[in-house]
Queue: 2 jobs
Job 1
Amino acid sequence: MQTYKIIIKGTVQGVGFRPFIYQLATRFKLNGTVLNGTQGVEIVVNASNDKLDLFIDTIKKELPPLASIDTLDVERIASKKFNNFQIIQTNNRGEKTVNIPPDISICKACEEELFEPQNRRYGYPFITCTHCGVRYSIIYDLPYDRVNTSMKFFKMCKACEEEYKNPLDRRYHAQPIGCWDCGVSLELVGRNVPIPTIVDEAVELIKQGNILAIKGVGGYHLVCDATNEEAVLKLRERKQRPTKPLAVMVKDMQMAREWGEINADEEKLLTSIERPIVIVGKRTFRPTGIAPNLSRIGLFLPYTPLHLLLLTKLNRPLVASSANITDEPLATNRESIENLSNVYDFLLDHNREIVNGCDDSVAMVVNGQTIILRRARGYAPARIELPFTLEKKVLAVGANQKNTVAIGFNKQVILSPHIGDLDGIESVEYFRENIENLKRIYGFEPQVVIHDKHLNYESTKYAKRCYGNRTLGEVQHHYAHILGVMAEKKITEKVLGIAFDGTGYGDDGNLWGGEFMVCDYEGYKRVAYINYFKLLGGAKAIKEPKRVALSLLFDVYKDEVLNLENATTKAFTPNELKTQYLMWQKALNAPLSSSVGRLFDAVASLTGICQVMSFEGESGMRMEELYDASISSFYDFRFKDGVIDILPMIKAINEEESVVMAVSKFFNTLVEMIDSIYKLYNLPLVLSGGVFQNRVLLGLVLERIPSAIIGNKIPPNDGGIALGQIVATLKS
Ligand code: ZN
Ligand code: ZN
Ligand code: FE
């Protein structure tokens, strides 16, 4: 018999790992201890060699559902005597490297208890156990113990405490544990109804067509009955969101199928413990107010007991939109939700503080691959393991749109949940909070801070302002896009990276976004790009596809455009056309761009699909609708000296009579472009950038080049930039 110390790192805290070890040790009749250290779980046991091997094998084989092991190290230590096996209390010395589990959905066992009339938690909207529920959103600090969460304000009742302290109970050390007597409670603000009937009352109010603000896991939702067209329009009006698609929460898979066309991969994603919003095909007979002009719809399943109760009682789908107004962060506390009191009719609140805000995640499936469009609840802040060890502690502040931030140390990167666009004072404040949250939880202080090359990004300004006294580094936007995917996929060889993007500051000061780059961690070489065109009106051109199209028409037809009649020119008055022509001629307020995102806009305008966008990405989404897979032809493009000339295509599109033909051939042309340049380089192909959120384009490229690599954990949009920024430091 020898004494061994086993250190296990990975997702091993807050997932029922210690009671699992306790039960296993009891089964194998091993004596010793287990504890949660800041480095991971530490087990000390007395065992023979054979038994130790068997014990370790069984740990790996029978792991609790949410746990995962990254490393397991065993060493023999000076022999110690134990009379039993014990779970000993947490120490919190040392460096904090354990993984925080994300907030995950309610488990089957809790769901059953929730609807079991004789259970003492029957109908309790915050029922939870070691295998489910909130985590990241309630953590102040590591290690993950109740005193370090916003549950510390609730004193457990006797019955809960017994469960909490019993290693054989499913709720052993379930930090958010509570019940009707001692836990979190609901409040329907301004309505004096007894607590147990609050959910019923809320359901009644929703049925009557009211808009409710409801506090969830990482923030508030604005909800209304999805079958009530009037309520949906009221929500759109009050939220000032005329056409952007709204997410719909459905009771179960059956209801999901009544609304969406769902394949097996999509069902798996919908029912996964992360419960993201999944973009699926929409049944055509469904109300148009949810996703106007689109054949896709975002569906998700209830992920908390409260949502389950609401949906079960309502038995109708619920529009559940993040509670924020354009450009502002998600509301996470009473004060911020009350700023939206003109949007909702009633507020369903609860008294557990949201420590770390976290939006719903959004995902889709393309050619069997999961593509994360917004990485937040359920996924964040789970860590991403790197193919290398970082020499320094690095903070990356991300881009300006769809911002996320990341911290990197040792061999890992912790990526924050989706923060959003840094366009207002409030969102920059929310961005700052997210950085502070990560620093606090992980006890992290950066030695190096990395930002985008764009000096006007709020994230860049913040890095310079707050960390100017530390080593700062800048990374080109599209290189960061490609590096992010390389890091996620642990790619260490040279790749051909294609970044098709909305925008990003290029090395020459122009706005890049149609880039072909040969990349490794040392650096990159831009081997091809879409020839520059002028963005007439600068930032205005980003919202107005007609400006981009007009500029390209000037490139092709010069002043003849003034007498040209097409969808684009019709969107301007004759005087405006003349002014725009002068701007184009003199290159006034007309930055150069190679962006494929803008090229999509131009085609949307030329074909009359969209002249001015009401939400970001609208033109691409509407073009997806028109793609005809039976059309295989494409337009000519010229590729010479690394420059892709698209003017022949623009001319041809302008002359095309059928919109479907123009759109389909445009998609096909992009695929040909990618394929032909891919063939010139015998390198693995990596795809990134916001344009690859386009389901049709991505699907076509993956069909043509099945080996093409796209991120599955980080979004193709700027939400993946922070990860790329961190690994860019590897070269130094
Ligand atoms: Zn549970
Ligand atoms: Zn209790
Ligand atoms: Fe980007």
Note: The radius of gyration is 27 Å.
Job 2
Amino acid sequence: MLPDIRSQTRETLAAQFAAWGQPSYRLDQLLGWLYARRAASWDVMSNLSKALREELAKTWSLHLPELVTKQGSSDTTQKFLWRLADGALIESVLIPANPALYGDDSDRHTLCISTQVGCAYGCRFCASGLDGFKRNLEISEIVGQILAVERWAASQPVEPAPATTAADGTPIPAPPPRVPERIVNNIVVMGMGEPMANYDHLMPALRALNATWGCGIGARKITISTSGVVPRIRELARDPLQFRLAISLHGATDAVRGQIMPINRKYPLAELTAACEDYVKQKGKMITLEYILIAGVNDGLDQVLPLANLAHRLHAKVNLIPYNKVEDLPWERPSDEACETFTDQLDQHEVVVTLRREKGHDIDAACGQLRLKTEKQEGYGSLEA
Ligand code: SAH
Ligand code: SF4
């Protein structure tokens, strides 16, 4: 199969257009079709000549992820299950902005995207790694999740505005319904897979999402979450773009973290902390420490002081997330009371802390769960190659 055009850098496309003797504005037109208009076929690119479209089709393929199922309603968290060109299944989760919390427009959303099919990191609590690792996502498949969600959103029927009447009784026709041009204004790379283990595809994908010729999403609106791949954190610290960083900590001592996250053996807390310090120093940006609360595993109050010390040392905020139950795994979320006690204790140590009221745990929103369920139903069996 030909490589996907959305996996090519702008420079590669520019070089090919130059070789074909095409003027540079043609490339801008093509990029407009690929990213702003989310084209799913060459035929729609009406301002490119038929001959050029044929050349393009001979050189590259053009795919967007195909929607298998969607769970959730338009005013709550919605989960998309996609099928890729080779049949692999991945997930993205669309989370509406909460105007009360963030003062954001209600048609603004955060999209949580995947970077791999499965995950090789084997964190004990996580559904994404349960069936092992299959492959890295291509650049086009990372970017494609945003484009496919926006295509889907644009295709949804919109409520017509009511017609009104002027004071003298003249009818005023209803304005045309407003189709949201872009609904995704925040991206969190927190879906299936370890993004830092697919760094070579992740970074060009994020650059395309950020670029003015691409999707135009601000770098500060894009957060990469990692289980702690130290060399890549150091590399990201030197990247010119200001992407945000979140660390999946889930344990504030090596004993507790090592029990649930195998990566802690390769990069123990001392090394992870040093890399985060380097990142904060280079970027001058606050990082987030993600901490899932799992009953009887990492919710002991003995974790509070080491966690507070880490947060202070890194000038980081702490995001506590009550564990989302995964079928087939023994782990449970602590009681609401236990979660609140843990939060209060951190607060008393003057840590900037939030306790997330998990959105969407009723629709299998924790990463990897919907895919796992669908694979079982469709009889895909193990993903192990
Ligand atoms: N591999 C990366 C990004 C994907 S996981 C990472 O680990 O950071 C995104 C987040 O979801 C991580 O913080 C992960 O620990 C968390 N997570 C995984 N399973 C979960 C579950 N069952 N309940 C709540 N959070 C979970
Ligand atoms: Fe992979 Fe992240 Fe899940 Fe760990 S938490 S298994 S790194 S997706």
Note: Residues 125-126, 190, 194, 225-227, 248, 250, 290, 292, 321, 323-324, 326, 366-367 surround S-adenosyl-L-homocysteine (ligand 1) (CB under 6 Å).
